[in-house]
Amino acid sequence: xxxxxxxxxxxxxxxxxxxxxxxxxxxxxxxxxxxxxxxxxxxxxxxxxxxxxxxxxxxxxxxxxxxxxxxxxxxxxxxxxxxxxxxxxxxxxxxxxxxxxxxxxxxxxxxxxxxxxxxxxxxxxxxxxxxxxxxxxxxxxxxxxxxxxxxxxxxxxxxxxxxxxxxxxxxxxxxxxxxxxxxxxxxxxxxxxxxxxxxxxxxxxxxxxxxxxxxxxxxxxxxxxxxxxxxxxxxxxxxxxxxxxxxxxxxxxxxxxxxxxxxxxxxxxxxxxxxxxxxxxxxxxxxxxxxxxxxxxxxxxxxxxxxxxxxxxxxxxxxxxxxxxxxxxxxxxxxxxxxxxxxxxxxxxxxxxxxxxxxxxxxxxxxxxxxxxxxxxxxxxxxxxxxxxxxxxxxxxxxxxxxxxxxxxxxxxxxxxxxxxxxxxxxxxxxxxxxxxxxxxxxxxxxxxxxxxxxxxxxxxxxxxxxxxxxxxxxxxxxxxxxxxxxxxxxxxxxxxxxxxxxxxxxxxxxxxxxxxxxxxxxxxxxxxxxxxxxxxxxxxxxxxxxxxxx
Length: 551
Ligand code: GLN
Known about the structure:
551 residues; 23 strands; 19 helices; Rossmann fold
């Protein structure tokens, strides 16, 4: 079979669901037994997403390879239940850097380098992502909107690929049809203009996914089809829905995957969406509420709560809850509200944490709010409220335990207290060098590492495995010097690196007697990156289960 490409571009404006459309098309082809990979072409000049602030850009997702990417990659993996590789992500910065590095080392053998070399590099990246051994179909989402000057090179490279392989490349535009409240009528003009703009680049869209508040009527579909030069049935109505996980099913109802397969001359295959339907059914039928508090700092941009910064964590909680028939309710708590030892803070801890079923502290960096998080961890440990700490959330768990149980009163992390003699969380030698030399980009401990589980622990029982692979993104580690003191006072390191030197999971044992903690566990890795709708993460499931039992 020849390799097929589907390009997804945005029209009119961003934020209307281009990523979810792309992911859903991936779900549909995967459900037909095709091997699919999805590529994100991001216009940013950042070489990767690792240096971007989550408050501005949302979560930094990490692939198994260790590449730090845009959060869309997380959606693709979740929707397809499939790992993507480092070749599936590119930024303009990555492309330019590669071309310029090659130029500096005489890689072009004295030739004059211009924008064509950038375009050709992108074409070759599209093609190498589509390596036939890995996948049959490559879906490429081009970041930004048609008409932006920042993403022109990605569209130009797509045009060239289509020119070379006319029957193997199609284009989908995800557009938006506003209904101005004063007019009360759905307007298609912006979409028509976006298509014209795309045509001016030499690209004709084959399909339009028309996002709007309500479904498109026949008249509107015909109008768009006529003015945009495509058959009426290729205008797909995509009205607002409650859950993003409905989108593949809605598309399938409109036979979208058949139409795309036809356009690409792919053989017709049977689609099996039974597991997906089962999951969506669980989302709809969940009744009993489970209240989980997320304690963090990347929440506010102006007046908005930015849950984008924790999207993988949120989804991971949801998957585990829904599969257990629980309806997750997330409560966002600012860690800074719990700083200090005043009566007010004590009251806040009692009132805000007393009413939730579980508490999660996600990953993070720097000093803001960490004493508040430590207070929260102490409270939930002492009051036996299920606790799950991710990365920084695990490091702070270890610090809290060291300070308040193991008697290391000054326990801290080197990240905040560079001169401390009680760095229970410390920097590793090779990481020290990166920091001294100011190398911040792509220099953390990143991506997949093996973790060996200790028999009989909460973690081992949850995973039902002796060894697992999880993804990382951090610089600091539990300091081996303090391990004995900490474990002597009861904390268990239930997961370690294969050589036993790095502590991957910390937990309090859970026995059968009533005095013990229902779930108090932290991971140095980020389990949220591997949680999928069709494969909820075992540790999130254990945590949510404990929370569900609290009432
Ligand atoms: N700041 C911590 C570290 O660098 C934790 C990082 C994280 O939570 N991702 O080790």
